[in-house]
Write a structure and sequence with these properties.
This protein is an alpha+beta fold and about 260 residues long. The chain is built from 6 helices and 17 strands. About 20% of the residues lie in helices and about 40% in strands. The radius of gyration is 17 Å and the shape is globular.
Length: about 260
Protein backbone atom coordinates (compact mmCIF):
# COMPACT_ATOMS: atom_id res chain seq x y z
CA UNK A 1 0.00 0.00 0.00
CA UNK A 2 1.54 3.25 -1.17
CA UNK A 3 0.47 6.86 -0.64
CA UNK A 4 1.15 8.41 -4.05
CA UNK A 5 1.50 12.10 -4.86
CA UNK A 6 2.54 12.62 -1.24
CA UNK A 7 5.77 13.29 0.64
CA UNK A 8 4.50 11.90 3.94
CA UNK A 9 2.35 8.97 5.05
CA UNK A 10 -1.44 9.32 5.15
CA UNK A 11 -1.56 12.05 2.52
CA UNK A 12 -1.97 11.96 -1.24
CA UNK A 13 -3.81 9.03 -2.80
CA UNK A 14 -3.39 5.49 -1.43
CA UNK A 15 -3.03 2.70 -3.99
CA UNK A 16 -2.59 -1.02 -3.73
CA UNK A 17 0.31 -2.47 -5.73
CA UNK A 18 0.29 -6.22 -6.35
CA UNK A 19 3.37 -7.80 -7.94
CA UNK A 20 2.28 -11.02 -9.64
CA UNK A 21 4.69 -13.65 -10.95
CA UNK A 22 2.33 -15.31 -13.42
CA UNK A 23 -0.77 -14.47 -15.38
CA UNK A 24 -3.90 -14.23 -13.21
CA UNK A 25 -7.57 -13.92 -14.07
CA UNK A 26 -9.51 -10.67 -14.24
CA UNK A 27 -11.96 -12.09 -11.69
CA UNK A 28 -9.09 -12.66 -9.23
CA UNK A 29 -7.71 -9.14 -9.72
CA UNK A 30 -11.17 -7.65 -9.27
CA UNK A 31 -11.62 -9.65 -6.06
CA UNK A 32 -8.28 -8.45 -4.68
CA UNK A 33 -9.11 -4.83 -5.56
CA UNK A 34 -12.45 -5.19 -3.81
CA UNK A 35 -10.65 -6.58 -0.75
CA UNK A 36 -8.01 -3.82 -0.77
CA UNK A 37 -10.77 -1.21 -1.11
CA UNK A 38 -8.64 1.64 -2.42
CA UNK A 39 -9.66 3.79 -5.37
CA UNK A 40 -7.27 1.72 -7.52
CA UNK A 41 -5.08 -1.33 -7.13
CA UNK A 42 -2.32 -1.86 -9.71
CA UNK A 43 -1.37 -5.37 -10.82
CA UNK A 44 2.15 -5.50 -12.23
CA UNK A 45 3.72 -8.44 -14.07
CA UNK A 46 7.05 -8.61 -15.88
CA UNK A 47 6.59 -8.75 -19.64
CA UNK A 48 9.65 -8.85 -21.89
CA UNK A 49 11.94 -5.97 -20.99
CA UNK A 50 9.19 -4.08 -19.21
CA UNK A 51 6.04 -4.54 -17.17
CA UNK A 52 2.38 -5.09 -17.88
CA UNK A 53 0.18 -2.98 -15.62
CA UNK A 54 -3.58 -3.15 -15.06
CA UNK A 55 -5.70 -1.08 -12.67
CA UNK A 56 -8.89 -2.05 -10.87
CA UNK A 57 -11.22 -0.01 -8.68
CA UNK A 58 -13.33 -1.97 -6.17
CA UNK A 59 -15.97 -2.35 -8.90
CA UNK A 60 -14.32 -2.14 -12.35
CA UNK A 61 -11.13 -2.13 -14.41
CA UNK A 62 -9.97 1.26 -15.70
CA UNK A 63 -7.89 2.06 -18.78
CA UNK A 64 -5.53 4.64 -17.27
CA UNK A 65 -4.50 5.51 -13.72
CA UNK A 66 -1.75 7.89 -12.68
CA UNK A 67 -1.45 7.52 -8.93
CA UNK A 68 -1.33 3.71 -8.95
CA UNK A 69 1.34 3.84 -11.68
CA UNK A 70 3.35 6.26 -9.55
CA UNK A 71 2.94 3.81 -6.67
CA UNK A 72 3.94 0.84 -8.85
CA UNK A 73 7.14 2.51 -10.08
CA UNK A 74 8.02 3.42 -6.49
CA UNK A 75 7.52 -0.19 -5.38
CA UNK A 76 9.55 -1.68 -8.25
CA UNK A 77 12.57 0.40 -7.24
CA UNK A 78 12.03 -0.07 -3.53
CA UNK A 79 11.82 -3.85 -3.96
CA UNK A 80 14.94 -3.96 -6.15
CA UNK A 81 13.10 -5.01 -9.32
CA UNK A 82 14.30 -1.85 -11.10
CA UNK A 83 17.28 0.44 -10.53
CA UNK A 84 16.94 3.98 -9.33
CA UNK A 85 17.26 6.35 -12.29
CA UNK A 86 16.43 3.63 -14.83
CA UNK A 87 13.63 3.99 -17.35
CA UNK A 88 10.70 1.77 -16.32
CA UNK A 89 8.41 0.81 -19.20
CA UNK A 90 4.78 -0.18 -18.67
CA UNK A 91 2.36 -1.57 -21.25
CA UNK A 92 -1.28 -0.87 -20.47
CA UNK A 93 -4.75 -0.52 -21.92
CA UNK A 94 -4.11 3.23 -21.97
CA UNK A 95 -0.93 2.86 -24.05
CA UNK A 96 2.77 2.54 -23.35
CA UNK A 97 3.81 4.49 -20.25
CA UNK A 98 7.19 5.36 -18.77
CA UNK A 99 8.45 6.18 -15.30
CA UNK A 100 11.73 7.16 -13.69
CA UNK A 101 12.36 7.09 -9.94
CA UNK A 102 15.25 9.28 -8.85
CA UNK A 103 16.08 10.30 -5.27
CA UNK A 104 12.59 9.39 -4.13
CA UNK A 105 10.84 11.40 -6.82
CA UNK A 106 8.73 9.65 -9.47
CA UNK A 107 8.31 11.16 -12.94
CA UNK A 108 5.63 9.58 -15.13
CA UNK A 109 5.35 10.10 -18.89
CA UNK A 110 1.67 9.84 -19.82
CA UNK A 111 -0.28 10.75 -22.96
CA UNK A 112 -1.68 14.26 -23.23
CA UNK A 113 -5.47 13.97 -23.43
CA UNK A 114 -7.23 16.77 -25.32
CA UNK A 115 -10.61 18.06 -24.16
CA UNK A 116 -13.08 19.35 -26.71
CA UNK A 117 -15.80 21.94 -26.08
CA UNK A 118 -19.34 20.52 -25.88
CA UNK A 119 -22.79 21.58 -24.69
CA UNK A 120 -23.20 21.36 -20.92
CA UNK A 121 -25.25 18.23 -20.10
CA UNK A 122 -28.62 18.94 -18.56
CA UNK A 123 -28.49 18.74 -14.78
CA UNK A 124 -24.69 18.80 -14.49
CA UNK A 125 -24.49 22.25 -12.92
CA UNK A 126 -27.12 21.31 -10.36
CA UNK A 127 -25.31 18.04 -9.60
CA UNK A 128 -21.99 19.81 -9.01
CA UNK A 129 -23.55 22.71 -7.12
CA UNK A 130 -21.23 25.28 -8.76
CA UNK A 131 -21.52 27.43 -11.91
CA UNK A 132 -20.08 25.90 -15.10
CA UNK A 133 -17.90 28.43 -16.95
CA UNK A 134 -16.47 25.93 -19.44
CA UNK A 135 -17.35 22.31 -20.24
CA UNK A 136 -15.08 19.90 -22.12
CA UNK A 137 -15.19 16.22 -23.09
CA UNK A 138 -11.98 14.16 -22.99
CA UNK A 139 -11.08 10.55 -23.66
CA UNK A 140 -12.26 9.18 -20.31
CA UNK A 141 -13.61 12.11 -18.33
CA UNK A 142 -15.47 15.40 -18.46
CA UNK A 143 -13.76 18.64 -17.45
CA UNK A 144 -15.63 21.52 -15.82
CA UNK A 145 -14.03 24.89 -15.11
CA UNK A 146 -15.75 27.00 -12.49
CA UNK A 147 -15.31 30.56 -11.25
CA UNK A 148 -12.47 30.19 -8.77
CA UNK A 149 -10.50 27.99 -6.41
CA UNK A 150 -12.83 28.75 -3.51
CA UNK A 151 -15.74 27.25 -5.46
CA UNK A 152 -13.73 24.11 -6.26
CA UNK A 153 -12.76 23.63 -2.62
CA UNK A 154 -16.26 24.29 -1.25
CA UNK A 155 -18.22 22.21 -3.78
CA UNK A 156 -20.49 19.52 -2.33
CA UNK A 157 -21.72 17.56 -5.36
CA UNK A 158 -24.78 15.33 -5.36
CA UNK A 159 -23.06 11.98 -5.89
CA UNK A 160 -26.26 10.17 -6.81
CA UNK A 161 -26.88 12.66 -9.61
CA UNK A 162 -23.24 12.54 -10.78
CA UNK A 163 -23.35 8.74 -10.94
CA UNK A 164 -26.13 9.00 -13.50
CA UNK A 165 -23.95 10.66 -16.14
CA UNK A 166 -22.38 8.37 -18.80
CA UNK A 167 -18.72 9.13 -18.04
CA UNK A 168 -15.86 7.66 -16.02
CA UNK A 169 -15.32 10.78 -13.92
CA UNK A 170 -15.73 14.54 -13.71
CA UNK A 171 -12.80 16.92 -13.23
CA UNK A 172 -13.69 20.18 -11.49
CA UNK A 173 -11.00 22.85 -11.86
CA UNK A 174 -10.13 26.53 -11.54
CA UNK A 175 -7.05 28.70 -11.50
CA UNK A 176 -5.44 29.07 -8.09
CA UNK A 177 -6.12 32.23 -6.12
CA UNK A 178 -2.38 32.63 -5.62
CA UNK A 179 0.34 31.06 -3.50
CA UNK A 180 2.49 28.10 -4.46
CA UNK A 181 -0.02 26.45 -6.83
CA UNK A 182 -1.14 27.38 -10.33
CA UNK A 183 -4.21 25.18 -10.73
CA UNK A 184 -6.68 23.56 -8.35
CA UNK A 185 -8.88 20.55 -9.07
CA UNK A 186 -11.07 17.81 -7.64
CA UNK A 187 -12.17 14.54 -9.25
CA UNK A 188 -15.45 12.69 -8.80
CA UNK A 189 -16.16 9.18 -10.12
CA UNK A 190 -19.18 7.78 -8.24
CA UNK A 191 -20.11 5.54 -11.20
CA UNK A 192 -16.89 3.59 -10.47
CA UNK A 193 -17.53 3.41 -6.75
CA UNK A 194 -15.22 6.38 -6.06
CA UNK A 195 -17.25 9.36 -4.84
CA UNK A 196 -14.11 11.52 -4.70
CA UNK A 197 -10.62 10.42 -5.69
CA UNK A 198 -7.97 12.00 -3.43
CA UNK A 199 -5.41 12.72 -6.20
CA UNK A 200 -5.86 11.70 -9.84
CA UNK A 201 -2.86 11.50 -12.15
CA UNK A 202 -4.83 10.76 -15.31
CA UNK A 203 -7.01 13.83 -14.72
CA UNK A 204 -3.86 15.96 -15.01
CA UNK A 205 -3.29 14.51 -18.48
CA UNK A 206 -6.39 16.56 -19.35
CA UNK A 207 -5.68 19.51 -17.04
CA UNK A 208 -2.15 20.10 -18.37
CA UNK A 209 -3.10 20.63 -22.04
CA UNK A 210 -6.26 22.49 -21.05
CA UNK A 211 -4.48 25.07 -18.91
CA UNK A 212 -1.63 25.27 -21.43
CA UNK A 213 -4.16 26.40 -24.03
CA UNK A 214 -5.62 28.99 -21.64
CA UNK A 215 -2.36 30.40 -20.30
CA UNK A 216 0.31 29.66 -22.91
CA UNK A 217 2.41 27.99 -20.22
CA UNK A 218 3.59 24.38 -20.20
CA UNK A 219 4.63 23.91 -16.55
CA UNK A 220 2.29 23.98 -13.57
CA UNK A 221 2.24 23.31 -9.85
CA UNK A 222 -1.06 21.51 -9.26
CA UNK A 223 -3.02 20.81 -6.11
CA UNK A 224 -5.95 18.40 -5.88
CA UNK A 225 -8.12 19.76 -3.10
CA UNK A 226 -9.59 16.57 -1.66
CA UNK A 227 -9.76 15.92 2.08
CA UNK A 228 -6.35 14.20 1.96
CA UNK A 229 -4.96 16.62 -0.61
CA UNK A 230 -2.10 15.99 -2.99
CA UNK A 231 0.35 17.93 -5.10
CA UNK A 232 2.26 17.28 -8.29
CA UNK A 233 4.20 19.08 -10.96
CA UNK A 234 2.62 18.94 -14.43
CA UNK A 235 4.71 19.56 -17.55
CA UNK A 236 3.21 19.46 -21.05
CA UNK A 237 5.73 18.21 -23.63
CA UNK A 238 4.11 17.90 -27.05
CA UNK A 239 1.89 14.84 -27.01
CA UNK A 240 3.06 13.85 -23.53
CA UNK A 241 2.37 15.04 -20.01
CA UNK A 242 5.04 14.58 -17.36
CA UNK A 243 3.74 14.12 -13.83
CA UNK A 244 6.32 14.51 -11.07
CA UNK A 245 5.62 13.69 -7.43
CA UNK A 246 6.73 11.60 -4.48
CA UNK A 247 5.34 8.41 -2.94
CA UNK A 248 5.55 6.68 0.45
CA UNK A 249 5.04 3.00 1.26
CA UNK A 250 2.81 2.58 4.32
CA UNK A 251 2.08 -1.16 4.42
CA UNK A 252 3.38 -4.49 3.10
CA UNK A 253 1.70 -7.87 3.07
CA UNK A 254 1.47 -11.25 1.36
CA UNK A 255 -1.65 -12.51 -0.38
CA UNK A 256 -2.25 -16.03 0.88
Amino acid sequence: MVDAFASRPFAGNPAGVCLVEEEVSEAWMQSVAREVRQSETAFVRRKGYGWEIRWFTPTAEVALCGHATCAAAHVLVEEGEEDEGALICFSSAGGDLEAVVDAGTVTLTFPALPAEAAPVPEGLEAALGVPVEDFRVSTYDWLVRTGGAILVEAAEPDMKMLAGFPVRGIILTAASDGGRYDIISRFFAPSLGIPEDPVTGSAHCVLGPYWQRLTGRDHFQAFQASERGGELTVTVDGNDVLLTARAVTVMRGVLE
